[in-house]
């Protein structure tokens, strides 16, 4: 067996390994809950969710992921024009790789491998911008939610921590590590046309509206009738705090579920409902895209030489 055949075999094994790990972690999360059993899950779907509601929830997930694909296509246009199909492959394959790494770090490598090695650093930067705007919007709406629901101490504490981090970054922006500094990073970000940044912000905002209202719809279907501003603000807080915690994407619904139990529990919502909603959100927005992404991972061919 020559070296080319050996390399192909290793790559194939790695691809299958990534997919098997992703599916193992998904299976593990869906079957280990003591509160939410598969039978209860199935019964709730059949009794509470009409066909129209299921279609609407699925449509939310399609739009949510499509907006992310458009974000990526928009940002990559700075580097090289790609089709919507290419952007779809890159986003979903990277999501599949990212699910088994802390905070989705594998997603950065997953996307970089679709481009020439010489462009990998710029691809990582573009992905950082893509994810960064979503995080900024999540923080912003989360802080607004904290203020609306009068968690003033928590809002002030978190704002203070954020300001401290910003000040530290500002005063160390010229500090270099291997010829790279925060100032260098900012210069590269500023070199990207404003139209691309503006479109990225708009798409990120629309995506936030989609998944937060998908969350809202699930509570309404399950007969949770809190005032709109209370429910949507609590959702914003849950996403903000859960996204700030280091975790694997495979544990995403467990992390969000734990934070949701604390904040929604204050309104005496049944913890079963809270965990059910978190699980459905995770299934629709992570599990289904990963299943599709696994196909792209199997057919993946790296451009690195």
Task: Provide an overview of this structure.
- The protein has 305 residues and is an all-alpha fold.
- It contains twelve helices and no strands.
- Helix 3 packs across helix 4 and helix 4 (84-98) crosses helix 12.
- It starts with a helix and ends in a 7-residue tail after the last helix.
What is the typical, i.e. mean, pLDDT?
A: 82
Number of strands: 0
H-E order: HHHHHHHHHHHH
Largest sheet properties: none
Beta-strand percent range: under 5%
Helix run count: 12
Output the keywords.
305 residues; 76% helix; mainly alpha
Summarize the structure.
The protein has 305 residues and is an all-alpha fold.
SSE layout and pairings?
Layout: H1 3-31, H2 38-48, H3 51-76, H4 84-98, H5 106-112, H6 120-148, H7 152-171, H8 182-190, H9 194-221, H10 228-244, H11 252-264, H12 271-298
Helix pairs in contact: 1-12, 3-4, 3-6, 3-9, 4-5, 4-12, 5-6, 6-7, 6-9, 6-10, 9-10, 9-12, 10-11, 11-12
